[in-house]
Amino acid sequence: MAYVSDNVMKFFRSSSNQAADPAVPQKLSRRSSGIGEVSRLLNSQEGLCVLDMGSTSANNIRFFTGKGHKNYSEDLLRSSLDPALRIEDGNGNSVIDTRKFLEENLQYGNGQFDVVLCWNLPDYMEEGLVKPTIDRLWSIMKPGGFLLAFFHTREAGPDSTCYRYHVNGTDILEMQEVKFALPGRPASEKQSPRLQRVFNNRHIENLFRDFASIKFFLARDAIREVLVVR
Amino acid sequence: MDAPQTGEGAHIGKSVVIKGELSGSEDLYVDGNVEGNIELRNNSLTVGPNGNVKANVSAKSVVIQGKLDGSVSASERVELQKSAVVTGDVTTQRIAIEEGAFLKGKVDIQKEAGKAAAPASSSSS
């Protein structure tokens, strides 16, 4: 219990101290029931296909390939910020070209993946991409495959830090702030992506309505972990 | 990693554009544009920060600071530095990835004969 409370305090302290030394991203640890369940699947079988949609992580590659699984990396949030994907709608507003995005990303065969790690992608991705992306994931996952996603609770503000996640043990994740050059900003001004929205439980259930089952794990750091079975 | 010193290997500067097959028996530093295939069986390839390589690469070790679009096969080691943007599958015994590097593709860690684990490391992250 002390471990959890220490980490909760570290989480809040880090939120207020981020400007102190932006060149050195802090690492925080948290227990994850969701990754614990994924680990049980990974430990029970060999040769599974894992799609990691977070920022590229050597930790994760080591964790998955060390257990004899195939690791695929695709940083979908960063890909979605490609200025070449922007088009104008009928009213002259800049919107993302969903069709082009799906032509350039998640190009895998149907039923290829046993595990998909979305991390916090749906909360930070542009609205128009979320549902089409989840639908594509449904197609490329095997029946019975696991999908893990993290959703902020309503206590989270728009400036909630966007983290990359490193698997650091059977149920331990290491979190590190994500920063990259955002569209329209100079490459030298790296920023953390902003939280786009907060899903409630009903929204989440609707998002994954085509999947077989959904399980929620409520954590103490304003995050719900959601484990979905295809 | 800086450009290699004179005499340590071949250097393709940033204004150079090459289309075709590249092979050799010395280390190669690419800071220009290469389109085709690169094969350096017993030597290393470094793609510099200005490098833009659209090629399948086979080498002993590969260090990427720039952009590479194609599959990478290294008999020993692959290193993606923080400015690396790699689209393609990577096959190697060891991989190091700096924070900020971008990789889109499959990573296949091939175990060394006689060794149980194949390490991947995260430097500076």
| Elements of chain B, N to C (H/E) | EEEEEEEEEEEE
Secondary structure category of chain A: alpha/beta
Helix content class of chain A: 25-40%
Taken together, the total number of domains of chain A comes to: 1
What does this structure look like?
The complex is a heterodimer of chains A (230) and B (125). Chain A has 230 residues and is of the alpha/beta class. In chain A, a hairpin with a 5-residue loop joins strand 4 and strand 5. Chain A is globular and about 50 Å long. Mean pLDDT of chain A is 85; it is low at 1-21. Chain A has helices at 2-17, 33-44, 58-66, 76-80, 98-104, 121-124, 127-140, 201-207; strands spanning 27-31, 49-52, 70-73, 86-88, 94-96, 113-119, 141-152, 163-167, 172-177, 180-181, 190-191, 213-218, 223-229. Chain A has one domain (30-161, 168-184, 203-218): 3-Layer(aba) Sandwich (Rossmann fold). Chain B is globular and about 35 Å long. By secondary structure, chain B is mainly beta. Chain B has one domain (9-109). The relative contact order of chain B is 0.14. Chain B has a 6-stranded parallel barrel with strand order 5-6-8-11-9-7. Chains A and B meet through helix 3 and strand 3 of A and strand 10, strand 11 and strand 12 of B. Strand 3 of chain A pairs antiparallel with strand 11 (102-109) of chain B, so a sheet runs across the interface.
